[in-house]
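Problem: given the chain below (595 residues), write out its structure.
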Amino acid sequence: MPILKHKAVRALKNRAAIGAMAAVAVIFTTALGASARESRSNAAPIEVSASLSGNYLAALVAGAQRDTRAASTFFREALRADPRNPVLIERAFVASLANGDMGPAFDLAERLVRQDAKNGLAHLALGVRAIRARNFGTARTHLGKGGNTRRGDITAILLTAWTWAGAGDFTKALEATDRLSDKSFALFRDYHAALINDLAKRPQEAARRMRAAYEQEKSTLRLVDAFARMEARQGRRDSALAAYRAFDDLLPRHPVIVDAITRIEANQPLEPLVRSAIAGAGEVLYGLGAAGVRQGDELAAIIYLRLALHLAPDHALAAVSLGDLYERIKQGERAIDVYESIPKESPLRASGDLQIGLVLETLERKDEAQQHLEAIIKAAPNDPDALLALANLQRSRKLFTEAAKTYTSALALTKGASRSDWTTYYFRGVSHERSKNWPAAEADFQKALELYPEQPLVLNYLGYSWVDQGINLDAAFKMLRRAVDLRPEDGYIVDSLGWAFYRLGRYEDALRELERAIELKPSDPVINDHLGDVYWKVGRQLEARFQWNHARDLNPEPEDLPKILRKIEVGLEDEKGKPAAGIAPADPAPTKDGG
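Solution.
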C-alpha cells in the first residue's frame, strides 16, 4: 500500500468535493432572506471567575485559541470589575465585535472613543450603527475619523459614498467612489459605482460601470452574478446566460449559478443584489472581509463580516464565508451557528446544511453527522453534493469500500464528464486503492487525469503507486517529477518523489529530495520518519534515530507509531526482521548543525 495515502488526501480537505463551497472566499456577497431554526450547536456554558485576574487570564487564553465567544464573555466580565480600564475596554470591544455581540460592542465603542478619540475601529463600528439607523450624517462623521490606513481609507470612502446614496444625493455618492483613483481599487470603485447608479435609476451608466468591473474579473462569483443580473434585468438575456455559463465552465454546479440560469430560462425575474443604501454598505464590508479571508487576516475578516451581517443579516455568502472562517480557526460550534443563519430560500442553504454535517464530524459528533447527512440525502436523493459529502465522511472514517460506492452514486448523477468531476474520480480512486482494488483505482486516477491533465495530486498518487508496485517506472518518475515541478513548495509531493527513490534503492537521490521535503514540512511525522529511514541507509544512524524520535513526537497515525518505536529501539530492519544493511559513508557525514 503506498505510503502516499496520507499525503494526497491531506492536500485536499475532505469537503473539497462540494463544489458549492469552493468559491466562498470571493470578494463579494449576496443578499437573501433570513430564517431561524433549532440550533445543532451545543456549545457548553461559560463559567466566569469571581476574580478580575481569573477572567482576564481566561480571556487571554480564549483569544489565543481564537474562541471569540469565550473571549467576549471573559473580557466583559473582567471589565465589570475594573470599568475604567482603557485596555480592558478596547479588548472587550474587539472581542464582542468579533463574536457578533453587537449591542455590547456598540456600547463599548462609545466608551472607547471618549477615551481615545482617534480609535478607527470604534468609529467604524459606530458609523455602521448609524447607517443601519439611517442616520447618514452621523455615520459620515464617524467614518471621517477612521480612515488612517490603506484599508481604512477604502472602507471609509465606500461607506461614505453609500451614506450619500442613502440621503438621496447620488452625485456626491459617485464623487466619493471615484476618489478611489488607485488602480488596485478600480474593481471596487467600478462595482460600487455601478450599484449606486442602479439604485439611482440610471441604467445605462450602471451597465457601463458594471461591465467595466466585470471585464477586470470574470472568475469572481459575486461579480459575475451582479453583472448577469443587471444584464438580464435590462433585457440582455443572452449576455446574462453567457456570463453565467462561462462561470459554470470554471466551477460547475455552483448553486447560485444554477439557480440564476434556471430562473432566466423560466422567464422569471432576477432581483438586483443591492436594493438599498444599507445593503450597499453591507456589500462594502463583506468585500473587505472576504479579502481579509484570502489574505489570512482572520480577526479583521471576522470583524468586517460581522459588521456586514449586522447591516444585512440575510447576506448568504457572508454567512457562508464567516462559517468557513470559523472552521479554519477550529471553532466548529460557532461555524454551525453561522451556517444555520443562512436563509432557507437561499440557493446556498443546502451547501450550508452539508457543511454542518462535516463540522459535526470534526467535533467528534459522528453519529449526529451521519444522521444529518443521511437525512439530507433522503430529502434530496438527486443532489450529488449531498452524496459527495457523505462519501468524504466515509473516507475520513476509513470506510473505503462504502465511500467508493457512494462516490459511484454521485458520479451517476453528475454523469462524470465535467472537469470538476476529477476530484470525485480521484477520491474514489483513493478509496479503491485503500480497499486493495488496484485495477479500479488505477482506472479512476487515469480518468481524473483525462479530465484534468497534469493535476499534481493525481500525478503524485498514481506515479508513486506505480513505483511502489515496480511497474511503469519511466512513466511513474515522469509523473512524480512533473508533480514536483507544478508544486515545488509542496513538501508532501517532494516527499513522494524522495520516497520513490528510496523504494528503488537510490538513496542519495532520496536523501536530496527528503531533506528538501523536511525543510518545507518540518512538522510532518511521515516525512520525518522517511528521512530517518534514508539516513539509516546511508550510514547516518545517529541522525536516523533523531528523525524517528521527532516523528514519534509529532502525533503520527496510530498504525505507524509501533513501527517508529521499533526503529528507535533496534534500528531499521529488513522484511525478515534482521538489521537492514546501510551504505557506510567514505568519510564521517556531517550533521545538520555542522558537527
